[in-house]
């Protein structure tokens, strides 16, 4: 078979409650306790930050003095000395900032260590390696974000202190011009902080939910199409896109206020200083002081405020979300709601064939040799067909055409009387590929995924029993047990996928080597269960002779030539089929005296065949080891093949 996708994705359905977006009263108190326990580090941080205050002070004061006492009085040497003092101040400030980083590390690393310790001990206790790796990643986010927050908020406080002190030292009237808009901007920002943080959180949760959804969906696109779940997946993903869009809009509305606070607190003072220049000069404010004030606003206050607004506005809420999750050891695991699945097929007048190909031709490229050419094949509802052929003969291509994954270049295909491709046809078939799609949710959610309705527990258990999943279900801990796809063997995943398909309303089941990892007995049980679905049709791309024997009809594919008939008939008529049967591992030979199937032709005359059956236009009554089909119409015959090789 061609490669198939195994998606281990999970369907995250995070709600604010689950995600910890509601207030967690313990968190601020714990944060305060953490800081108080590190008073010495905090003191060191303050001490080094004071150097930054001094640097800020000099950024405005130095140039002001250089102008007023130096350059404007024709004393360039004095001006240069003041500029040199300013430069020295900047150097000392930079040295202080480097020490600040070390102090911040001393504050942040213990937080990280403590969080890692908690996360790891929880992971060791629960043995939940997947959640452990997710949580440690969140710890790193928390560490980086916390460090960023400490830096920007500290920087704003000490820069603002230095700038305000400088303005006062230069000329107190300058404070009257710069102070009120700065205070108004900071007040507006403070007022928007909480609502903005809530919206930021909502956005983050919506963003993660969408990313989780896409992470789960994208690797399984082929399987989703194969199982006809496109509409459901599109609806689920669409909801998440909408949720993120709504969250982004709400965030943007509040973001406008954030920009306004920056404009009022950081940019308005520049305009006011320029506009009030005559008034200030008239009150004895010197030119140098005016230039110094402009330097404070443009070089210190505005950048510090901008960092605060962006840093606290974005990182603050991110940190809150992450810390809450870590505090609750909650990574937002999914609730994994079962999807609406496939709609029940519309009841139709009469019973259309399970599928029908009319002059179907398909090639993978315009210049390629067709894999399927001019094929007419009609399979009555309720049949059991095995598709066999050497590797590369086109078996998967045929199932993909019937499933609507590929479109024929010529001819038409219908499933359940509905044209392929189309939603009705998609709802009438389920394709189970070789690589089974199992997702990280409960077993019940995995099994009921293709059902639009709530599936009673008894039905799930009955399906598990029929397909052969029951022992695994018991071992996993029942229907409510969480399934870790990576912890299942390939065969176990196939059993889960088969049971899911068994429970779906799609009457046509296409098993594209979907049982290749099962042992022969389990494979037989699963195939028989599918064949016995009332009104169900089973198409199996067979990889064992036993599969072909069990099926009422066999389609032999070999490039562009095909042969169609019962097992015995094909043994007589198809050299390729004889070769294939010979090359398959021989099972214990059946005694010819023990008929596997008895055939009753259309006139009610019984005929006896060996393993398998033969002949068009016959009804089949099964008994004996191969004939344990239970459902009426299980091996109903009547398939027709327009083109035989
Ligand atoms: N996506 C593709 N693009 C181009 N050629 C393809 C593609 N998929 C299959 N083919 C070719 O089409 C032919 C039929 O492939 P297909 O997978 O249907 O065969 P198969 O009978 O299912 O083989 P197997 O038993 O090995 O899985 C092969 O020659 C294969 O190389």
TrEMBL record:
Residue ranges, annotated region (Disordered): 1-24, 330-353, 608-645
Location of the ABC transporter domain: 355-583
Main location, first listed in the record: membrane
Keyword Transmembrane: yes
Membrane topology: Multi-pass membrane protein
Gene Ontology MF terms in the entry: ABC-type transporter activity; ATP binding; ATP hydrolysis activity; ATPase-coupled lipid transmembrane transporter activity
InterPro entries, per the entry: AAA+_ATPase (IPR003593), ABC1_TM_dom (IPR011527), ABC1_TM_sf (IPR036640), ABC_transporter-like_ATP-bd (IPR003439), P-loop_NTPase (IPR027417), Type_1_exporter (IPR039421)
UniProt keyword annotations, A-Z: ATP-binding, Membrane, Nucleotide-binding, Transmembrane, Transmembrane helix
Boundaries of every ABC transmembrane type-1 domain copy: 45-303
Subcellular location: Cell membrane
Pfam family, one: ABC_tran
Range of residues in the leader sequence: none
Residue ranges of the TM segments: 41-61, 81-108, 146-168, 174-193, 256-281
One cellular-component annotation, GO: plasma membrane
Extent of Basic residues compositional bias: 1-11
PANTHER family: ATP-BINDING CASSETTE SUB-FAMILY B, ATP-BINDING CASSETTE SUB-FAMILY B MEMBER 6
Protein known as: ATP-binding cassette subfamily C protein
Organism per entry: Streptomyces violarus
């Amino acid at each position: 078979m061609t490669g198939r996708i195994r998606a281990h994705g999970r369907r995250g359905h995070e709600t604010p409650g689950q995600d910890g977006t509601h207030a967690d009263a313990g968190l601020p108190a714990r944060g305060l306790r953490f800081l108080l326990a590190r008073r010495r580090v905090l003191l060191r941080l303050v001490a080094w930050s004071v150097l930054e205050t001094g640097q800020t002070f000099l950024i405005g004061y130095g140039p002001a003095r250089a102008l007023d006492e130096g350059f404007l009085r024709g004393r360039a040497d004095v001006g240069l000395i003041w500029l040199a003092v300013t430069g020295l101040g900047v150097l000392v400030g930079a040295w202080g900032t480097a020490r600040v980083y070390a102090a911040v590390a001393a504050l942040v690393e213990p937080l990280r260590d403590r969080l890692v310790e908690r996360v790891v001990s929880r992971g060791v206790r629960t043995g939940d390696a997947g959640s452990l790796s997710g949580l440690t990643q969140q710890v790193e986010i928390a560490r980086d974000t916390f460090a960023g927050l400490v830096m920007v908020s500290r920087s704003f406080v000490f820069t603002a202190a230095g700038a305000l002190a400088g303005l006062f030292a230069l000329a107190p009237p300058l404070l009257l011009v710069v102070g009120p808009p700065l205070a108004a901007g900071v007040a507006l920002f403070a007022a928007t902080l909480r609502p903005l943080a809530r919206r930021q959180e909502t956005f983050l949760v919506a963003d993660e939910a969408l990313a989780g959804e896409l992470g789960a969906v994208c690797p399984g696109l082929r399987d989703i199409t194969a199982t006809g779940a496109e509409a459901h997946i599109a609806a689920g993903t669409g909801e998440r896109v909408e949720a993120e869009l709504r969250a982004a809009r709400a965030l943007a509305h509040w973001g406008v206020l954030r920009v306004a606070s920056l404009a009022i607190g950081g940019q308005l003072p520049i305009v006011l200083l320029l506009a009030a220049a005559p008034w200030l000069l008239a009150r004895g404010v010197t030119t140098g002081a005016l230039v110094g004030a402009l330097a404070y606003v443009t070089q210190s206050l505005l950048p510090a405020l901008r960092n605060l607004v962006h840093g606290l506005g974005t990182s603050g809420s991110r940190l809150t979300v992450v810390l809450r999750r870590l505090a609750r050891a909650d990574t937002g695991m999914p609730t994994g709601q079962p999807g609406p699945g496939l709609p029940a097929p519309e009841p139709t007048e009469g019973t259309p064939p399970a599928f029908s190909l009319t002059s179907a031709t398909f090639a993978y490229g315009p210049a390629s040799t067709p894999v399927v050419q001019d094929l007419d094949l009609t399979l009555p509802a309720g049949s059991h067909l095995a598709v066999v052929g050497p590797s590369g003969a086109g078996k998967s291509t045929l199932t993909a055409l019937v499933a609507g994954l590929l479109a024929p270049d010529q001819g038409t295909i219908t499933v359940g009387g509905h044209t392929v491709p189309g939603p009705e046809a998609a709802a009438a078939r389920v394709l189970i590929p070789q690589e089974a799609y199992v997702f990280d949710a409960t077993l019940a959610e995995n099994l009921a995924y293709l059902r639009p309705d709530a599936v009673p527990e008894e039905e799930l258990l009955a399906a598990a029993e029929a397909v052969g999943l029951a022992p695994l279900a018991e071992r996993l801990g029942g229907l409510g047990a969480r399934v870790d796809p990576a912890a299942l063997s390939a065969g176990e995943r196939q059993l889960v996928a088969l049971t899911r398909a068994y429970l779906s309303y799609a009457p046509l089941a296409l098993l594209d080597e979907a049982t290749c990892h099962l042992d022969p007995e389990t494979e037989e049980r699963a195939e028989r269960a599918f064949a016995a679905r009332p009104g169900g049709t089973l198409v199996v791309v067979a990889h064992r002779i036993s599969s072909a024997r069990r099926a009422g009809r066999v389609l032999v594919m070999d490039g562009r030539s095909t042969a169609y008939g019962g097992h015995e008939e094909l043994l007589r008529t198809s050299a390729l089929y004889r070769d294939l049967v010979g090359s398959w591992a021989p099972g214990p030979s059946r005694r010819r005296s023990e008929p596997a199937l008895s055939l009753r032709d259309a006139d009610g005359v019984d005929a006896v065949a060996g393993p398998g059956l033969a002949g068009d236009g016959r009804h089949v009554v099964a008994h004996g080891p191969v004939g344990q089909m239970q459902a009426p119409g299980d091996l109903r015959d009547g398939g027709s093949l327009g083109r035989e090789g």
